[in-house]
């Protein structure tokens, strides 16, 4: 999937972001995935709008994210 962002989070914060990604994908009726990347965890979405929503949630949680 080409709509992805990389975040550096671990533990409870990673769990929170997984839950948010799942909620966003379920609401948009799309698939999403997570995988390890060189600089953190890559969250991938089928939809560019879902990626944008996820990035804004990362910003709200003060988690920097990089376009992948």
- Please give the order of strands in the largest beta sheet: 2-3-1-4
Main β-sheet: number of strands, strand sense, barrel status? 4 strands, antiparallel
End-to-end separation in angstroms reads 10 Å
Low-pLDDT segments: none
Shape: globular
Determine the structural class based on helices, strands and strand pairing.
alpha+beta
Q: Helix coverage percent of residues? A: 40-55%
| Percentage of residues in DSSP E strands | 25-35%
**Number of extended strands:** 4
Oligomeric form: single chain
* Rg on CA atoms, Å: 10 Å
The mean pLDDT is: 94
Order of helices and strands: EHEEHE
| Number of helices in the DSSP assignment | 2
Overview of this structure, please?
- By secondary structure, this protein is an alpha+beta fold.
- 46% of the residues lie in helices and 29% in strands.
- A 4-stranded antiparallel beta sheet has the order 2-3-1-4, with helices on one face.
- A hairpin with a 2-residue loop joins strand 2 and strand 3 (40-45).
- The longest helix has 18 residues, at 11-28.
- The protein is globular, with a radius of gyration of 10 Å.
Summarize the structure.
With 68 residues, this protein is of the alpha+beta class.
Characteristics of this structure?
globular; 68 residues; 2 helices
Q: What's the helix and strand layout?
A:
Elements: E1 3-7, H1 11-28, E2 32-37, E3 40-45, H2 48-60, E4 65-67
Antiparallel strand pairs: 1-3, 1-4, 2-3
Helix pairs in contact: 1-2
């Amino acid at each position: 999937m080409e709509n992805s962002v990389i975040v550096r989070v671990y533990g409870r914060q990673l769990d929170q972001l997984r839950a948010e990604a799942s909620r966003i994908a379920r609401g948009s009726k799309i698939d999403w995935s997570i995988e390890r990347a060189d600089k953190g965890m890559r969250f991938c979405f089928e939809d560019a709008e879902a990626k944008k929503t996820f990035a804004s949630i990362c910003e709200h949680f003060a988690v920097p994210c990089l376009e992948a």
